Amino acid sequence: MNRHITILISIVFVLFIFLFSFELVYGYGRLFYEADDINVQNVYEFMDYKEDLNENFNEKEISHMQDVRKVISWSHALFFASLIVLLLFWTRRTVFLGGLVSIVVTLLFILSSVISYKWVFDNFHRVLFEEGTWLFNGGTLVSSFPYDFFFIGFISILGLNLIISGLMYVLIRKST
């Protein structure tokens, strides 16, 4: 396989592992988070295109959640696209390199989060959302999904990412 293709497929592997970790945390984490809170449940139903947000959410919160829903839809599409690419083009070398790069990137995110999770959180939002649309002074959204919700979710994604990447790296390394 061409060197550039190997690098590209390895990058797709890194993306796939991160998105796979996100899918697991997003899918299963929501089963356990505040299952009895009506606003949390309303957001989950909204994210699944089953209902609109209720009257407890203000216009700015609704607009932001519409943006979040678009980002999550794109992440689902990227997940499946990366899965298809990997099923068609993976090699031991791409999995090995992808696992190694994923471990390094994950450790950098963990280090950045330990130093300043606020910096990571803010920059994540600056990249994905229009400036100022994700900043709130209280409100239903902040009380239903506090800062700790996102910190725990992010650390869970990184932890899963590290475990999966490490396993892939070790399994491929041992089999060669």
Query: How big a fraction of the residues is strand?
Result: under 5%
Main beta-sheet annotation: none
Radius of gyration: 18 Å
- Average pLDDT, rounded to a whole number, is 91
Structure report:
The protein has helices spanning 3-29, 38-47, 59-89, 92-128, 140-144, 147-175. It has 176 residues and is mostly helical. It has one domain. Helix 1 packs across helix 3 and helix 4 (92-128) packs antiparallel against helix 6. The mean pLDDT is 91.
In short:
The protein has helices at residues 3-29, 38-47, 59-89, 92-128, 140-144, 147-175. The protein is mainly alpha-helical and 176 residues long.
Topology:
Layout: H1 3-29, H2 38-47, H3 59-89, H4 92-128, H5 140-144, H6 147-175
Helix pairs in contact: 1-3, 1-4, 1-6, 4-6
Main features:
176 residues; mainly alpha; 79% helix; 0% strand
